[in-house]
């Protein structure tokens, strides 16, 4: 999973996001809301990142997306064949990277997306 966030491994179209929002299972944590949908094919896991609209400044939204991308890069053992949408709550903008990482790992355990 070295290229987890390559173009072909991202949700890019609005219709792809809508399917996950409509049919996906929801898991909540302090800083994130994760929606997971198992696809019929067993291809790579695709990821979409959506910051809250309550994060007003584009600089902050982009910073949070970069941090979340890094969190996904550090997770090498995520199940294959899934579509994931990670919503970032506004409270995450004041959290340290360590707190975000800890919360994200707990969310992955809760959703059983980790292989180990």
Structure class: alpha+beta
Give the biggest sheet.
4 strands, mixed
Please count the beta strands (DSSP E, at least 2 residues each): 4
Task: Please report the number of helical segments.
Answer: 3
β-sheet strand percentage: 15-25%
In the CATH hierarchy, the third-tier topology is known as: Ribosomal Protein S5, domain 2
The second-level CATH architecture is 2-Layer Sandwich
Number of domains: 1
Task: Flag low-confidence runs.
Answer: none
The gyration radius over C-alpha positions equals 13 Å
What does this structure look like?
With 116 residues, this protein is an alpha+beta fold. The protein has one domain (11-111): Ribosomal Protein S5, domain 2. The chain is built from three helices and four strands; from the N terminus they run αβββαβα. The protein has helices at 14-23, 58-74, 97-111, and strands at 25-28, 32-38, 46-51, 82-88. It has a four-stranded mixed β-sheet with strand order 1-2-4-3, with helices on both faces. Helix 2 (58-74) links the parallel strand 3 and strand 4 (82-88). The radius of gyration is 13 Å and the shape is globular. It starts with 13 loop residues before the first helix and ends in a 5-residue tail after the last helix. The mean pLDDT is 90.
Lay out the secondary structure.
Blueprint: H1 14-23, E1 25-28, E2 32-38, E3 46-51, H2 58-74, E4 82-88, H3 97-111
Question: Brief description of this entry?
Answer:
The chain is an alpha+beta fold and 116 residues long. The chain has three helices and four strands, in the order H-E-E-E-H-E-H. Strand 1 (25-28) and strand 2 (32-38) form a beta hairpin.
